[in-house]
Amino acid sequence: MPLPRSAAEDGPRWPEAAPAPAPAPASSPAPASSPAPEMALTSEMAPTSHKVLKSLLGAWALAACSPEETAAVEAHLTDCATCADEAVRLREAVALLHPEDNLDLDPRLRSRVLASCLGRRPARVPLPAWAAPYDAETARLDALLHDIGEAEWQAPVRLRWFDGERPVGRDTTVAAVIGHLTAVDGLVARTLGLPDPLGDPGDLGDNSTGSPTARTEALWAARSATPPAAVRAEWREQGRALIRGASFAEESAAELAVPYGPSALPVREAFLDRAFECWIHAEDIADAVDYPYHPPSPGHLHELVGLAARMLPSAIASRRRSGLAPPAHALAVAGAPGRSLHLEVEGSGGGHWRIALDSPAATVPPGTEVAHVALDAMEFCRLAAGHVHPEDAAAGQSGDREAILDALYATASLSRM
Question: Membrane-spanning regions, if any (predicted)?
Answer without folding.
Answer: none
